[in-house]
Fold these 3 entries.
Entry 1:
Amino acid sequence: METILHGFLTILNLCLIVGCCVVFTNAVEHLGKIYNLNEGAVGSILAAVGTALPETIVPLVAILGAYLAHTDVNVGKEIGIGAILGAPFLLSTLAMFVTGLAVVIFRSMGKREHKMNANYVVMFRDLKFFFFSYTLAIIAGFIHIKPLKYACAIGLFVYYIVYVFRTLNCSHSQCGESAEVEELLFQKIFRKYNTFLVWLQVVVSIGALICFAHMFVGQIKFFASLFHINPLVLSLILAPIATELPEKFNSVLWVSQNKDTLALGNITGAMVFQSCIPTAIGILLTPWVFGMESIINIVLVYCSTLLLFFNLYRDKHFSAHILVTCGVFYVIYLGYIFWKMI
């Protein structure tokens, strides 16, 4: 009976997360309109950072919670490192796969064209920033001199600030005009429209996303315990799946509306954020050393990112089939993890 209840709560959490994503994407588009932001900034910063909050909080809770609760700090740090590394991995593989598959499905339904119209400048910039920030974060794992390690962390914080300024200052002609937006959902409730109401919808939707994402992680932990799945698998695969759901659902919603720059910028912008801020926190609060499972995870992130990079460099746009192919690297890692478990 308890298992059935948890199964029902898991499905309910999924539905609530989808609903929150609808509210959030609606609000973030209005923010872009109010502040006259380019489409790249809306997708790569506002949407990406907003939906990246759940997976950013997970490692902090795992690491700091272990200290505060006086539980096994080493387990907390292991889960924290796994969650931090798992986020870019899920974004560059599974999130890309889901987005590409959504394009294929909506194309077969006649709701959109097959070619993706994501802005080349925005996508290329995001991938370059991610590649360098992720590489710096990984290099820090092989540095054993603490001052140098901490310098890498500070460098990542500064690097993300540079990225934000570069994105915000990109001209509309280069990074795209803000897309047409539908009526603000809170406007239907409060019967008015102003900047405060838009921000209120953003804050409420993000708060609800964080809440429901963490409830979903709780359900995953229950099933992990039920089926005796170890914490490493939970932190590297299962927990990021739950906390990356907002990015996936947001991107699916946007590709259904032919807003590909927002859809993919939501993912690539989150990749940059995840490779800078959470990794910097991991470097500062954990030993930040990698086992074999983590190293294979890192290698597959590079494989997926380079595939995307060279496809974009060659064709000047993303192909839905290339995005779907990124899912292969996720399957490879799943196969490796289950082989290790067996």
Entry 2:
Amino acid sequence: MSEIISFGHCSCRNADAESGTENKAQRRLGVDIYGVDTERDASSDCALLLYEIRFARDSKFKIHRGIVAAVHLEQFSSGKILPLELPDSGQIEEHLHNLEVNKIQSGAISALYADPCCVLESLGENEKQRPADVEIFPEEGIRCRVWKVGNHTMLKKVQAVLDKKSLILVHGRSLYEGMLRYRDACREANKEYTGRESFNYAAIALSNIDDFNTEYGMTIEPVISTCSLPEFRDLPLLLGKLGEFFNVNGEELEPVCESVSMHVQRALKDPENPADLVLYPGGKHIYTLQLRSRKHLQETEFDEKQLRADSSAMLYQRLILNHILEVSPEDLHNSEVFYVPGHMLNACEQASETEDCVAFFAPGPSISQVRDIAWDDIQVPGGLIRCNPLFPSGVVNFSVRD
């Protein structure tokens, strides 16, 4: 994977002392990191950060653990960083501007790694026996604690566990791409750069895939793709092609966007017979599709990685776009062709106002399927999943000054 090195000096960021609050935990808002330390100088007081996030729900709770480390920025083509988000060009420009002005990475970048034995979590337990350096409550029922770790041996062990693993970038791709552009601009301005400057690194929250379950930790939302391809506008032809692999059911409803959105959510989350794909072309009709048996899929030319689960969003997208509609690989990665709106309601409104047909893919892939991506380094189109941040935004600020 991409190289992990030590952070430089870190300091806790406190709330304004005039706020009057006596709750120490409430006043300690985060950590400011002042660059990286490539040589582990004796004056540095931090190598990396450990964090724990406790989620409480209905008298039950789950503790999710991870580390925040300085990770060398790599182009996605290297295979060391595998992105599963579509970038937002406007956000990239905004992040780039903020980096140029403030020289600070302010935002959460989250990535997953595969460690089925949970070695890193075990290594960090000793360090977390002391009080946390930062403790905040970003939302009701959520507590985040952060520990600064200056143990050089710990850093070496972290590097050994993550060596040769790919990181799956699940949140913060636009910020990451903004940092790539900022890095390139700094390299152009500093012709004799060494590659060890702070602007060559990002502070990334690394989380173990095997530290999650379906209720806590990484939240995977349904994939919403507003497809502007001509094939999606010719609805009879589209349904005819999909009918070879899916059972198709059409239903008439009132053309009210909010009711359409609610219908889509019910269809995708039906506990007994959930839809694998929902199509809404605008107007009074909506179509729910269930994928047929695995045996039927064996007749197509899929390899085993693609056939591991019948309920894989990756399988649907490859099936529909690559095999049925013969979409080119270039178009698969074109964010102008596949726009991912923020909410179902936005997508339904767009379908009502334009000629686009909105395709709602089933929620997924599951944690186990994301794990398969990490193990096999499968290159998949962006936009398949949308994750909430694994680490609260604003807790860590990382200086990228050269």
Entry 3:
Amino acid sequence: MLELSVVNPWQKGTVLNEQVCDASEPRRALGLFDAICLTVGVIVGVGIYQTAPEVAKAAVSPWQVYAFWLAGGLLTLAGACCYAELASTYPKDGGDYVYLSRAYGPWAGFLFAWFQCTLIRPGDIALVSWVFAHHLLLLVRTWHSDWQQWGVSSWHTAWVACCSVVVLTLFHSWGIVTGKWLQNILTLAKLAGIVWLVGVAAAAPAGGEAVPAASSSIVELPALPATVAIILVLFTYGGWSDAALVAAEVRRPERNIFRALVGGTILVTVIYLAMNGAFLRVLGHAQMAGSSAVAEDMLKAAGTAKAAAWINALICVSALGCASGMVLTGARISYALGADHPALAWLGRWNTRPGAPRHALALQAAATCAMLLLLRDFLDTLMYTSAAVYGFYTATSLAVVVLRRKEPNVPRPYRVTGYPVTVLVFAATSLYLMYSALMYRPWHALAMVVYLAVGLLLYRLQNIWPSRGPKS
């Protein structure tokens, strides 16, 4: 049990009073720097390189490009504030699972965990590790001329991706200390690459519309609606809530969780604005909107030698850092699920000596590798699960309101700034995005409803085991 006191999250010198925790449970080994590296590392993956040109298509001017990305950052910041209150109030591993269970009942948390552990989290890791493997193989072909005549088949990519997932899982199985150092190194390497990219653009002459097409990848494509641009931007900010999944392992959670979620989101917003500024400075708005390889085109226009190799290397580091963070945080969902439900108790075992949920990590790795090897053509359909994802975002943000009424006496070290407007804005945004996803792919959305119904059935069946409800 934790004894919390209401504090100012920005105030220094405030320490969370806590009893000595059981050695078989998570220990607080993540400092503020580690939590921020985790937040930034998961958010900044490879999406920015794909979505930046698409968002530019929907903008009528460079300033509107900035406006889209700033709006996405502010909406994400609203969500981060909601999760900061919940995570600092209930500093346990599992994130949404914990909050949904307390707000609406164990069934809600079970459905979230079922969806995340069996489909979304393994699918997300599979997608990112696939991108890492693909660009790693392209990088090898670039630097080794003897391999350039070799084709990169989907099987080669799948096996390399599986190897990366296994290696990352082994690192995080050695404990939170080993895992956090790996995550910190990968995040810092990623940020160093982005700083270099922006620096190249700053040193290059401002070409704008006068710069000739940098590569044959630049094509004329129709403009996109502004609503699609916002959806793409928010998709690129995805992963901002992952720090809440490891709340039980963050030191001084009453202030550091808030700082990690909010500070990490602000830092990512600045990064995305700087990257878009770099693309616009060198390529100009029209060429940026027409590019299918915007970072590579920017480097070529700036006169950088071996631009393709440098971008492949940067994407490899970005994807690997993102996958590492998702491996670390995703296993905490299934661990929390197993800790509360006797039928899945083996998932809730915390291995004391390394300090990691090895069973949960192993299951997650097995599910991810199965998707990579057996369901390679199915990976794209995982993008259409966004309806359920935004549905859970809506429910979790509204849990702030529900839990304030349901558990008014629980100390809240941080309370959402601008409550209740901030909560309602984020909930309304998530609800709208869920509706948009339902309208965009109705049949895929229907499949997700069926999948959730199966999860609810399994929840009823697992109650056959002796009940010992969620930990308080």
